[in-house]
Amino acid sequence: MEQQPIKSNQAERGQQSTLVGIVVNIGLVLVKGTAGWFGNSYALLADAMESATDIVTSIFVWVGLRTAARAPDQNHPFGHGKAEPLAAIVVAVALVGAAILIAVQSIGNIRVPHKIPAPFTLVVLAGVVIVKEVLFRRVTKVGAEVDSSAVKADAWHHRSDAITSLTAFVGISIALIGGPGYESADDWAALLASAFIIYNAYHIFRPSFGEIMDETPPGDWQGELRAIALTVPQVRGIDKYRVRKTGFEYFIDLHVQVPGELTVGQGHAIAHAVKAAVLRAKPAVYDVLVHIEPA
Predict the structure, then answer these.
(1) pLDDT at residue 8, as a whole number
(2) Is there a contact between 243 and 210 (Cβ–Cβ < 8 Å)?
(3) Helix 185-212 vs helix 83-111: crossing angle, to nearest 10
(4) Per-position DSSP letters for 215-248, written without gaps between them
């Protein structure tokens, strides 16, 4: 049975989604950075910093998706799919780094008195929250459709940016309403945002690391594979199974039970039939290795 082609269209959709995010983030860095500087808001400057890391990590995601879509070669017989979760891990690490930097700067600003942020910064932040939330939902949808941990990670990076902007909005609002003595509310908001960013980093890191470690993907794989295999005549059941995800594809090892009196040729034909049935039922599966066991 000839293997299915690499899902290049999935990679292309993921790359297009990532490029849109990069363009949007470039604009947001300029807007937030300028507004934060002239509006005396460190929370907004921290938000701009977070958007800047979005740009860098999105580039890593884009490169990871391009690499993952490459066909198998002599040195990489299982393809280059691991580049995709690796890109997601890079995003998670970058998020942690950005969160730590924001937290350190926030603590420093809390200890040093400064001016209350300008009211116009609230308008900027409200716009940012809307843009980022829309972008998060759009990229999340693409990530789910192409089943890409890197694209999903990129989406959560947008969500973390939206959260940073929302906490900054709240902090600046408190500072403006409270007046003198509440200047540091802006900085406390940035500090709180750093904690949210670290949480999102873990949310990105955990499934990507599991994929790198060949962790069994979520879902009732055993039940589904058994049902598919039993559609092939002479198959009595499944003894063992192993599933691992590599990039956009899944690789399956399947131990199928058949009557012990069958010939080698008959067992070989059944193995091919089971493989074909799995590939038809699950288009995301790239290859199936079937081992015949006597029932």
Answers:
(1) 59
(2) no
(3) 160
(4) PPPSS-HHHHHHHHHTTSTT--EEEEEEEEEETT
At residue 256, φ and ψ (nearest 5 deg) are -105, 135
Helix (H, G, I), strand (E, B) or coil at 145: helix
Low-confidence ranges of the chain (pLDDT < 50): 1-6
DSSP label at residue 113: -
Map out the domains of the chain with their CATH numbers: 8-212 (1.20.1510.10), 221-294 (3.30.70.1350)
Residue 261: strand, helix, or coil: coil
Angle at Cα 229 formed by Cα 147 and Cα 144, nearest 5°? 10
Give the span between the Cα atoms of 16 and 14, in whole angstroms. Answer: 5
Rounded to two decimals, the pTM is: 0.72
* Residue in the block written with tokens 């962790």: 215
Q: Residue 186 has which token pair?
A: 């802006």
Per-residue tokens: 160: 């973390």
Q: What is the pLDDT of residue 231?
A: 93
CB-CB neighbours of 218 under 10 Å: 9
Residue where the block lists tokens 């998020």: 95
Is residue 172 within 8 A of residue 32, CB to CB? The reply is no
Write the DSSP symbol of residue 74. Answer: S
Whether 233 contacts 259, CB under 8 Å: no
CA distances from 196 to 21, 85, 138, 161, 179 (A): 20, 22, 21, 10, 26
Q: How is residue 177 written in tokens?
A: 């309403």
